Amino acid sequence: MANVSVYNMEGKEVGTIELNDAVFGVEVNEHLLHMAVVHQLANKRQGTQKAKTRSEVSGGGRKPWRQKGTGHARQGSTRSPQWTGGGVVFAPTPRDYSFKMNKKEKRIALQSALSSKVNENKLIVVDEIKFDEIKTKKFQAVLDNLKVSKALVVLNENDKNVVLSAKNIPTVQTALTNTINVYDILKYNTVIVTKAAVATIEEVYA
Predict the structure, then answer these.
(1) Domains present along the chain, CATH in parentheses
(2) Model pTM score
(3) Average pLDDT in the 181-204 region?
């Protein structure tokens, strides 16, 4: 099992914690990591793009000029794709981009994402993050103490003071243990996890 240091909000080491290899020490499956990221981004797409084909554009019923003798190329409709105001050749139509991943694939992908952060020493465990008021400066001070800029902060409970204190920092995102996902873990340079959140993650995903 991997041993990592536990820090307090002042950035001082206050102990160590053993991480469960079943969650934080698995072999990284790059294929499932990629699949999980594409899955999440594809499921977010609206898929509402639409353009009209030549059969859907109004007008163009009459042949614009006779077939021969004008010197022009022959034309059958003013709504052909080469005409201004004509239809689009292979027009996009509304579609659903989403696809499914089974539970086992999702679990392995999440374990791989967390393990990759541990391997890169980009996972920081803190004993707790607590504020008595909503203050962005205080949250920024914690990040400075931990020498972190772009981070995903994983909490065990929805602490309003912590979440709202982090909200105005553009390079930081907070998440609960039941809302963490592969895309966010890989998107941010560092993952900051509270000790309580580590225990919950190990319990749920081991």
Answers:
(1) 2-45+100-205 (3.40.1370.10), 50-93 (no CATH)
(2) 0.80
(3) 92
